[in-house]
Amino acid sequence: MLFRYLFLLLVILPIKAFALIEVDITRGNLNPLPVAVSPLAIDKNSKDNFKKILKKENLGSEIAKIVENNLKQSGLFNPLNKDAFLQEPDIANLKPRFEDWNLIKAQALVTGKVTFVDEKLRVEFRLWDVLAGKEMMALAFTTVPSNWRRVGHIITDKVYERLTGEKGYFDTRIIYISEEGPKTNRIKKLAIMDQDGFNNKFLTLGNELVLTPRFSPTNQMVTYLSYFRNLPRVYLLDIETGMQEVVGDFPGMTFAPRFSPDGKKIIMSFAKDGNSDIYTMDLENRIVERISNHPSIDTSPSYSPDGKYITFNSDRSGYQQIYVMNSNGKNVKRISFGNGLYGTPVWSPRGDLIAFTKLHKGKFYIGVMRTDGTGERLLTENFYQEAPSWSPNGRVLIFYRETKTNSKGEGFSAKLWSIDLTGYNEKMVETETDASDPSWSSLLSN
Amino acid sequence: MNLSKTLKNGFLVLVASLVLTACATQKKESIGQMQGDVYTGTDSVEYLASGVPDRVFFATNETVLTTASRETLRKQATWLRKNSDINIVLEGHADERGTREYNLALGERRANSAKDYLMTYGISSDRISVLSYGKEKPVDSGSNPLAWSKNRRSVSVKAN
Amino acid sequence: MNRSVIISFGLHTFFVIITAMSLPFLAKKPIDLPPIISVELIQITDKTNIPFAPKARKIIEKVKEKEKKLVSEQAPPKKIKKQKPDAVPLPDEKIEKIKKIKDKKQNPEKIETEIKQISEFEKKELFDSNNIAALIDKSKVESAETNKKLDKVTQDQDKEMDFIGLTLGEEDALKAQIFGCWSIPLGLPFNENLLVRIKLQLKPDGSIIRSEILDHARMNRPGQGFYKVLAESALRAIKLCQPLRVPSTGYERWKDMQLNFDAREMLEG
User: I need a surface site. Which of A222, B50, B62, C211 has the fewest CB within 10 A?
Assistant: First the structure.
């Protein structure tokens, strides 16, 4: 009897139910993900053809370089040094030897192939999970050879999205104002470039003052302020045809223009008799609608991505602050309450945040807040900076900075800068000339 | 004993008082003056005619006319009445310490303040048009309060 | 100006004299201070990461030396016989395949090199964390460093205790290791459920027999695309960290383990 009980005890004790241990992992690192971008494989025939057409030695390497540069600039990836790569591009594209890539600590690998087919450029690429040893993604594109840079950007967008869960922002363009000359006599031109600084083009000659250009969501049109014939008015410019036209027939200065999310309307300020109010004009039927009606200055309007709300800048409280109202102008609510002046509100394409410029105690800040005004976060501080514009995935802000002049009034410069929403990866965006008033397009490949 | 102690204390008192002593410094600079925040100098001022300054100045973020501004505008009004065939454009400006679009609106409001005042002296609005350059055309490229005060202005320019 | 200086001086003298004369009256009473009690806030990690005695330090140093030697004696990476992976192998299938490969090999030394190689990486991860101190919380770095010292010592301490589950020390060690391996994708939405639960079956040396994502179905649900990215990052972390830092005893109690990866804290900032 006793033995039986003892036996039971012995059996039960070990089976004391070692409950499943749970360990909570609530932290990790924010290190850029190490990724290897192998030069894209290219056969001799294709290589020679592309060299002839595009004047590029090795198109496979060039496209890979674009991907590598984009990933590095995003701050989220760490592209590894090509000199350490052990596998040749063509073999790697067929079947990577994961141990080799693991050896150099890559966690992801991009391989691909470039071919010249029917006078066209065909690119295929694969994304591999090196640690799991499997393929994550494989895609191919065919396009005209002159679009080769865009292929690099599109590949980056796909890779970025697969690894971060966010849509990319690399196949985009930035429109801005190119500036030159002394501060008292600046020559300003409308300019456009790829998001990585290449393919820069000037759209106006610099004969009249131009300011604050903004992209249409459909990307063929741009709206901006021009002092053509000394009359400051909002204009529309078709990038592809070069055609310009004035927006509406206002008897006074119109400025601060933006497009509605559906691209069908222009929203802007109209100044008359010392008062600036917000108006819209429908581009199709040309109907003008007055949105705000207040003796204060109302300007810098920006639509929410669903078109239901408008955020704008007003000094109706006595100082520049940020407000939100319905798109019909009703239900105006102030949302900025911190110390200082607030301006240039711009709604994120994700709809969750509003970016702004803040001036407090002589310093300028770029910041974001939730659309109800809570959660104000200042991302960067400077002697002078303003006018943030969102990347199409609502992750990165581009803005511009000016430097202080010395006692002789020299040393003035204006440059574009960008910063990640987390406050990291603050860096200058290279432009040929000085630059200001940047605006980011949506993804070109839609 | 007592005497030295008293002397010592007395000495300390004197030193403490000297340290605390202060007097107001002169605010006014000799050239390029500012009153409060408003430029009162004549460096950047041009003239529509002898004795008629072409511009008025404003305080930071302000669009109200100072006494000096009103005096200048009165002179302009007189001159405009005498030269009834001349039209003018009022160009409003702001300094660089503000956001670009708001400054455009601010410049317009400043120019308009000047226009309203001229109209009270009988100048017809047909003869006055208003234009704002925001912070785009500073007169002084410096990054200091004096330079900024020179840039916050409304300038009357002959249109014909 | 001189006049104002003299007036200022006179007034100040007056006030200083008044103050000086009244001060003695204030200074008379002695102040009664309560005795100072010192309160030290000890984090649980500090308690379990008890610094060791000089003798123990020597032992650890010796062990480190031994480990270093093994690592440097490695030959360059040996080519392991390749297996053709299926089109889209699930993580657990892959691990079973690796297990099969391991079984096939007759040469035990090869396995050793592989493991040592991985642990060389893992060590590097922890060292790397020092370089990117700007991005990582200081406290994370500290716990990683103190845990390095822990290696052999705490496990001895635990022999007497009979817990179900890991001790705080063991848990800290494992957490710190995985913190270093988990690269959190920054693109995840701040306000969603960012919890990935992965069930593991472990070998005594900490390598993984089998892993299973508990909310597997969520990976392919529409609108939850980010979950797949999150889950993949967790799997990468586990792979990178193999062999896991498990206690050297009590295999039965931790051979089945569940890791709950929650990115919320890091992303909400």
Answer: B50
